[in-house]
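Build the 3D complex.
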Amino acid sequence: MIGRHTLDVVPTRRAAPRLGTGLAIGIALAVALLTLRILSPQRPSDGVPEQVRDFFTLSISVFVESLPFVFLGVILSIVVRIFVPEALFTRLLPRHPVARRAVMSLLGVLLPVCECGNVPLARGLLLRGLSVSEAMTFLLAAPILNPVTIITTYQAFGFDDGILLGRIAGGFVIANLVGWLFSLHPRQEQLLTPRFEAACRLDHDHPETGSRMRRGVLAFAEETSTMLPALVVGSAIAGAIQVGVSREALGSLGGNPVLSVLALMALAFIVAICSNVDAFFILSFGSTFLPGSIVAFLVFGAMVDVKMLALLRTTFTAAALLRVTAIVALCCLVLGLGVNLLA
Amino acid sequence: MRERFTARWAGVLISLIGIVATVWLAATGQLGLYIHPRYFVFTTVMAVIAAVLTIAAFVVVPGGDPEYGDDAEHEQHAHGEQARGGRRSLAVAGSVLVTVLAAGALLVLPPATLTTSTVDQRDLNASVAGPAAAGSAELAGGDQSSFSVKDWASLIRQGAGDEFVVGKTATLTGFVTPDPDDPENVFYVARFVVTCCAVDAQPVGVAVYSPDWESRFPVDSWVEVTGTFGANPSLDSLQTIAITPDAIDATSRPSQPYVY
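Done.
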C-alpha cells in the first residue's frame, strides 16, 4: 500500500510541466516527419532498377496493410491486460484443459482481428496467465474461426467441394491438436523467448500500479516496440520473396493431387495474405487447382506464413515456431489430400 | 536509456512514421497504390486512434516507471556485465536501423505502382481463369463499352473469343508490358488485380498487335488503346486474339491504378 502511494505521488508532482513538454515534442516530431514526407520526391526516378522499386512497393504494401490491424491488436491486448478483471477469465473458462483450449479456439468469434492483430492479443492473454498451449490454440484457430473469414469463404466458394467445411473443421482440429501437443511439454514457458517470459513473470509477481490510462499508454509503447520492428522485418522479407521467387511454375502443378497441395501451401506461405480475404484471392485460381489444395491454402496460410513467423518470433522461440510450422504443414497436407480424395 | 530505446521508443517512433505515412497517403489519395479501397476507412481511423496513443506516449514514456530501470540494471549485474552490454548495444543498433529503414521507405521514397518486373514473376492472366470469371456469361450479355481490361481478359481466357469478342471495339487503359513470345510486335495493355494489398496483385492484360511499339511507348508507361478485337496476326505469340489498334495514346497513371 505504501509503495503504491509513493508511486502515485511522484509522477503527479512532476506531471504538469512534463505534459506540456512531452506533447510539444511529440507534435513537433510528427510535423517534422510530415514535412520530410512532403518535401521528398513525388515521382519514382527512372534510374532505380524495377526489381528494387517493386521490392519497396510490395514491402510497403504489406506494412501499410498490416499496421492498423497490429494497432487494433495492441489496443485489444491492453484492454485485456489492464481493463478486464483477471477473475473474468478464471470464471468463464472451463477447468478441463481440452475444453479450455476448445473455447480458446472459438474466441476469434468474439474478437475478429485477423492474424497480425492476434499476435499482440495473444501476448496480452499470456501476460494474463493463460498457458502457452492455450494461447497457441487461439493464435492458430482465430484467423479461421471468425465471422468475417467464414462469411468471405462462403461468398467465394459456397458449399462447393467441401472447401468451406474443410476449412472450418480443419482449422478447429489442427489448432486444438497443436495446442494438445504443446500442452504435453513439461515446461511450457521454455517455448517463450526469455525476454517475454521474464515480462510474464514480472507481471505476475508484481502487478503494476499507477493509473490505468498511464499504464495503458506505457503498454502501448512497449507492445509496439516489440511488434513493429518485427512487422518491418516481416514486410521486407515478404517483399523480397515476391521479387525473388517466380510464380509461373505454380500453374503447371495444379492438376496433381499431391503437388497441387504443396504448391498452394508454398504460395500461402510466401504471399502472407490476410485470412479475412484470402478466399477471394485463391478463388481466382479455382479452376486451375484441385479443391484439396485450396483448402490447404486457406488453412495453412491463415495459421503460418512468412510475416506471421516474424511477428510470432517476438514471443516464441525459433525451435517452438519450427515445430508449429512442421506440424501445421503436415496436418494441412493430410487435410488437402483427404479433401482431394473425397471431393 | 539504451534499454529504454529498444523497449519503448522504437515502437513509438515506428508508430509515428507509419501513422504520418498512412495519413499522408490517405490525404493525397494514394492509399490505393498499396491497399484495397475496402480498408481505406479502417486504416485511416486506426491511424488516428494510434496517433492519440503515440502522442500520449511522448508524455508518459520519459517518466516511465522507476522500477523499469532498476530491474534492467539488476539483471545486467547478475548476468555478467560485458556480454549483456554487448548484446544490448547490438539490439539497440538493430532497432535504430529498422526505424531508419522504415522512415526511409515510408517517408522518403516516392510512392509507386508495381512494374513489369512483377508481371514477369507472376503468370499474366493466370488468375482470371477460375469461377471468379463465372460472371463472364453475364459479361457477354452486358454493355461492353464499360468493360475493363480484366473483363476482356477473362472473356478471352474463358474461350468466349470467337463468338463474342472478335469484331468488338474497345477503349482500354493500362500499362504497357511486352508479350514474352513476340516482344517486338505484341504488347499487353495490362492492369494489376488486387484482393487485399499490392503483394497479392495479379497481372491481367489484353494483347495489342502493334509492330515496333516499343519505339513509341516505353514498357510500364500508361496508354489508352482504342481498336477492334480480331485474330492475332503475330505468328509467335500464344495469344490467339489481339486488339488491332486504331489509336494508342500515351496517358498518365490513373489515380486508381489497380482493379479489384
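Confidence is low (pLDDT under 50) at residues 66-79, 129-134 of chain B.
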